[in-house]
From TrEMBL:
This is Two-component system, NtrC family, response regulator. It comes from Parabacteroides chinchillae. GO terms for biological process: phosphorelay signal transduction system; regulation of DNA-templated transcription. Residues 143-372 form the Sigma-54 factor interaction domain. One of its GO terms (molecular function) is sequence-specific DNA binding. It holds the Pfam family HTH_8. Keywords: ATP-binding, Nucleotide-binding, Phosphoprotein, Transcription, Transcription regulation. CDD domains: AAA.
């Protein structure tokens, strides 16, 4: 499940948090001061640190910087008895994952730890991979599909990978744009350098500007020290700008300047910074329409789309679905300790009939769910979500005798069994809030 370090000088809170987090299956360590916390961090390398702001030998806000220096991939969540906006801003700037108030956010702690744990665990796994294994993971050879549309996209990506021109990847959500971006980078002359990905829709306008370009100390309230932006971090390598169509119009001008001159200004600075970065952008929007609506700069579009690759929707290449099923079943079955899993023809037919608005990402989630639900060694249509069952693909007899609440109870029970009773992981897999899950457990007497 992962390791969590709690740093708090209040013994009752330390004991309570340790018990609650430990019951979720995490390995918990305790510290009551900055000094002890740093020693525990070096000794155990936890994925997540839950830290009080006020400690006897220092400030938790400042401690974040020290924690991140020792273990950059560990995520730090700060707890405070009294919310303070400047402290919160500085904590995030120092590298904290989040900043919450004690008492008011008790229901948020476990889901927040689970999210931070997922992020840190993934980062630590990636760190352990060698350059060769990473190269293999993002090899064009492992991109699934034999349809003409996907093979054409792969062929174009292979050709542009050896150049240094900007690339624009288009296609619906979940079609694999980041996989293509990673593969292009891994097959370029920049493969030994950084690959930095940023989702432009995940940040507010001001935060995105700070993340991308960095800022000088004193540039705005809470900016106590100079901070590097992602373009500086990616210098020599590649930056992947996902959902580029969501970027604020005025920020597009700064991006255009980088593409044209290789220079940009940090927030609050007057001296240009020179970087050598390859830009790969992606969008699920129709940028031509965005240009017509004055939401996207036409000159930026032409600079980004020097080489454009469109990734086809899964519903337009249903012949590739069996290949994806085999690949995902092999991965998830091994992870779950299920051997020699088979797939029924009815299951495959049901998948082919589905419109797949979420494309490959949705298919991946459906298959993972099916393997969790499956009692035997065969994936049948019984393991598919109800919304996917079409009359052509499934008989109504499959669910006779079950009302909706009965099916929900059975489904929740199976997922709880799979997670060994871990409520946070169960709520994540079910796609519902932790509070909702507890209510359902009480309602169904699970």
């Amino acid at each position: 499940m992962g390791k969590v370090l709690i740093i708090d000088d209040e013994k009752q809170i330390l004991s309570l948090l340790s018990r609650i987090i430990g019951l979720e299956g995490y390995e918990v360590y305790q510290a009551s001061s900055c000094k002890t916390g740093l020693k525990q961090l070096e000794q155990y390398t936890p994925e997540v640190v839950l830290c009080d702001v006020r400690l006897p030998d220092g400030s938790g806000v400042e401690l974040v910087s020290e924690l991140k220096k020792l273990c950059p991939l560990t995520e730090v969540i700060l707890l405070t008895a009294h919310g303070n906006i400047p402290d919160g801003v500085q904590a995030i700037k120092n590298g904290a994952y989040n900043y919450i108030t004690k008492g008011d956010d008790n229901n948020c702690i476990l889901p927040l730890i689970a999210q931070a744990m997922d992020k840190a665990s993934l980062a630590y796994r990636q760190q352990k991979e060698t350059v060769s294994s990473v190269g293999q993971q993002y090899s064009f050879d492992v991109i699934v599909g034999n349809s003409p549309a996907i093979r054409e996209a792969v062929s174009l990506a292979q050709k542009v990978a050896t150049t240094d021109v900007p690339v624009l990847l288009t296609g619906e959500t979940g079609t694999g744009k980041e996989v293509f971006a990673q593969s292009i980078h891994r097959h370029s002359d920049r493969q030994g350098k950084a690959f930095v990905a940023v989702n432009c829709s995940s940040f507010s306008r001001d935060l995105l500007e700070s993340e991308m370009f960095g800022h000088k100390a004193g540039a705005f309230t809470g900016a106590l020290k100079e901070t590097k932006g992602l373009f500086e971090e990616a210098s020599g390598g590649t930056i992947f700008l996902d959902e580029i169509g969501e970027m604020a119009f005025d920020l597009q001008a700064k991006l255009l300047r980088i593409l044209e001159t290789g220079e940009f200004l940090k927030i609050g600075d007057t001296k240009p910074i020179k970087v050598d970065v390859r830009v790969i952008a992606a969008t699920n929007r129709d940028l031509a329409k965005e240009i017509a609506n004055n939401n996207f700069r036409e000159d930026l579009f032409y600079r980004l789309s020097v080489f454009q690759i469109h990734l086809p929707a899964l519903r337009d290449r249903t012949g590739d679905i069996p290949l994806y099923v085999k690949a995902f079943v092999d991965v998830f079955a091994a992870k779950m300790g299920k051997k020699q899993m088979r797939v029924s023809s009815e299951y495959i037919n049901a998948l082919k009939l589905h419109p797949w608005k979420g494309n490959v990402r949705e298919l991946r989630n459906v298959i993972e769910r099916s393997l969790i639900i499956a009692d035997g060694d065969v994936l049948t249509i019984d393991t598919l979500p109800l919304y996917m069952l079409h009359p052509e693909a499934a008989s109504a007899d499959n669910y006779s005798g079950f009302d909706l609440s009965g099916m929900e109870k059975m489904h929740i029970s199976k997922v709880l069994k799979y997670t060994n009773g871990n409520k946070t992981e169960t709520s994540r897999l079910l796609g519902i809030g932790l509070t909702t899950l507890y209510r359902k457990i009480e309602e169904y007497g699970l």
